[in-house]
């Protein structure tokens, strides 16, 4: 080999084209999920099998309304209600209609709550499941109407009602019409209680604003998922108002449990069995248990 050939520059090797290196295209998008808490990486399909709970640190990911129904209810037992209701724009708020339509297309829901009747290990129950993927689960007129109708259906059938809260609060684009839903749902729940019927409230991440200040906090049994954010105003607003530094775990499910505002904090994968026990214990006299 000549000196000229020895010192001749070798062409650069593109690492992405080397046979031993995998390009990004070799790994389908979404096949792996990285936990935002512990940074553990898991196959997305395994995460879904585990109820969207990190197997390493038990972080509870947000669930869609349909995922929660599939996780909790008996197969093919859930029948949805009021899917025809559609949100209007009573205040002519700019771009509001377009944003609602975009979320409806992305989630497959008509609004930020899925309601209906189904069975949990054989026991019939009405349910409203809020979905934070739709306008952050905010409560507008249709959300309030759907939840109210679900409660009224439970009262009519003489069965328990469950509400899974996941909401940023009242929807500002509908103004006072949104705030009215707090009272409307609460009145329906009071009528349900007057019939001697059970209401179970389950608070998930996040349960805030007008939802936390109304129907989410008045269950006969109040449950929450681990580390769920639950509160009315934000931490910074409260700290600036009271001029005090709040505890690190303030407005978490565990904090509320320690201060008597919850009955239990329940791991998501334990929820089906816990619900089954509660429903059986509170079955109406003369009901047939299966």
Automatic annotation (TrEMBL):
Localization (cell): Cytoplasm
Pfam families registered for this protein in UniProt: Carboxyl_trans, Zn_ribbon_ACC
UniProtKB keywords: ATP-binding, Cytoplasm, Fatty acid biosynthesis, Fatty acid metabolism, Lipid biosynthesis, Lipid metabolism, Metal-binding, Nucleotide-binding, Transferase, Zinc, Zinc-finger
Cofactor comment text: Binds 1 zinc ion per subunit.
Basic and acidic residues bias spans: 1-15
CoA carboxyltransferase N-terminal domain span: 31-290
Subunit structure: Acetyl-CoA carboxylase is a heterohexamer composed of biotin carboxyl carrier protein (AccB), biotin carboxylase (AccC) and two subunits each of ACCase subunit alpha (AccA) and ACCase subunit beta (AccD).
The protein's name in its UniProt record: Acetyl-coenzyme A carboxylase carboxyl transferase subunit beta
Organism: Sporosarcina ureae
């Amino acid at each position: 080999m000549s000196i000229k050939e020895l010192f001749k520059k070798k062409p650069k090797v593109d690492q992405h084209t080397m046979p031993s290196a995998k390009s990004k295209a070799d790994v389908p998008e979404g096949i792996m999920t990285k936990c935002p808490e512990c940074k553990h990486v898991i196959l997305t399909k395994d995460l879904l099998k585990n109820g969207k709970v990190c197997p390493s640190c038990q972080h509870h990911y947000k669930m869609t309304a349909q995922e929660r129904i599939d996780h909790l209810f008996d197969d093919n037992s859930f029948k949805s209600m009021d899917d025809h209701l559609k949100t209007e724009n009573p205040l002519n708020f700019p771009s509001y209609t377009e944003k609602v339509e975009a979320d409806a297309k992305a989630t497959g829901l008509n609004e930020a709550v899925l309601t209906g009747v189904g069975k949990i290990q054989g026991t019939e129950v009405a349910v409203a499941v809020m979905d934070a993927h739709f306008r952050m689960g905010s409560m507008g007129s249709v959300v309030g109407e759907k939840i109210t109708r679900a409660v009224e259906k439970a009262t009519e059938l003489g069965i328990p009602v469950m509400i899974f809260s996941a909401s940023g609060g009242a929807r500002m684009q509908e103004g006072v019409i949104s705030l009215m839903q707090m009272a409307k749902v609460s009145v329906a729940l009071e009528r349900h209680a007057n019939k001697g019927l059970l209401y179970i409230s389950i608070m998930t991440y996040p349960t805030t604003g007008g939802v936390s200040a109304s129907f989410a906090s008045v269950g006969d049994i109040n449950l929450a998922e681990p580390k769920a954010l639950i509160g009315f105003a934000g931490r910074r607003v409260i700290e600036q108002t009271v001029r005090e530094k709040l505890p690190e775990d303030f407005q978490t499910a565990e904090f509320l449990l320690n201060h008597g505002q919850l009955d239990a904090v329940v791991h998501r994968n334990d929820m089906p069995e816990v619900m089954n026990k509660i429903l059986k214990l509170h079955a109406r006299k003369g009901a047939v248990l299966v």
